Amino acid sequence: MGFDGEIFTRGESGYEDARRGALWNALTPDRFPEVIVWAAGEADCLAAVRLAREKGLKLSVRSGGHSWAGNHLRDDTLLLDLSGLRGFEIDREAMRASVQPGCPGNVLDLELEKLGLFFPVGHCPGVALGGYLLQGGFGWNGRVHGPACQSVVAIDLITPEGEQLTVSEESDPDLFWAARGSGPGFFSVITRYHLRLYSRPPVIANGIATYPLDALEEVFSWAKEIGPRVPRWMELMLFTHLDQGEPEVVVTGPVLAPSEAEAREALGLLESCPAAGRAKLSMPYFPARLEDLYAGVHASYPDDHRYAVDNMWTHAPVSELLPGIRQIAETLPEAPSHMLWMNWGESPVREDMAYSVEDETYIALYAVWQDPARDQANIDWATSNMVAMAEMASGIQLADENLGRRPARFVSEEKLERLDLVRSRHDPDGLFHEWMGRPA
Question: Which of 45, 71, 364, 388 has the smallest number of CB atoms closer than 10 Å to its CB?
Fold first, then answer.
């Protein structure tokens, strides 16, 4: 069976480089696909589905490899690598785009910026749209447009039987429903997304303040209290990290605003913190491009590092969350490891799709390091701190999942049941992997 791309078989030359190259996280798990297919086009995707069946292998798919957990790296598997499928087309008049799964969100955004258009791409540069959209899509201005998968209008895919389809709400509502939010548990190969675009926000800006650790309770309590006053187009985020070895709290509030006046008013909220007089640094307003915001994010998620990640959605009172947050801050691994808190707010009614778990507050832990000797300690930091706060969680987000080590609720019970039914109809032989861990 011919391929225009490349194929690597376990034990042969080039295989280990292809396996390690299929994951952005330098903490590569000891899981070994039997075959890795690097696709050069849709024909290779179809051939890979057929080859997996012929060899009696399960099939996993990689779009860009930013999955922290490496869900796509599995034993006894054919791994289909779509990272080379990076094409996109933009129809300015129709406010639509079509993108291949390996296209990085920041690359698409640079082209949209030239046309005054916008799509809620991911916060981190390099994140490919394939996996990002499958798991929901938690991106820039997501509080306005919702999870990015809600802006998907149609999907080109290859079914487990090797059938090439374009699915939408009208043509195949079950597959379309499942693709929007099932993440690495989806059971077809997506080769192209068709997206709804938006007008670009005219003003992008940010503000920042940093505080010593002794202001932690005051700052987090204030952030929770002002949540309902934060415009949907502002992303109020708090971080705890180490600054020259000392824990500190960072407050930032990127805005993608309708006007400069509204942007300044929103960022003025940062100066309402009761601990403002103790701020180590205060820059309440500075203009930016999305490209600048990407650069700031990338500093917290550098390339060629090892990562252990976990997360939770919650609506628990801040007083109940604070002891766990302080424990996290006091035990932070080396920089740039950090904890993120985001005021997500009360969510509007969503379209009917597999994506179904979100809440008022999002908390995520990111251990980031390079020394392999620190692996277990940093994995334990991320996992054990989320275990300790699990009773206050309403679920997790698949973007920062840790399901192989800590199964948790990532879709509602009703929608998980429907996912299982749709899977049984479309992939009765179990060609595609499910998640590495399921809710109890």
Answer: 388
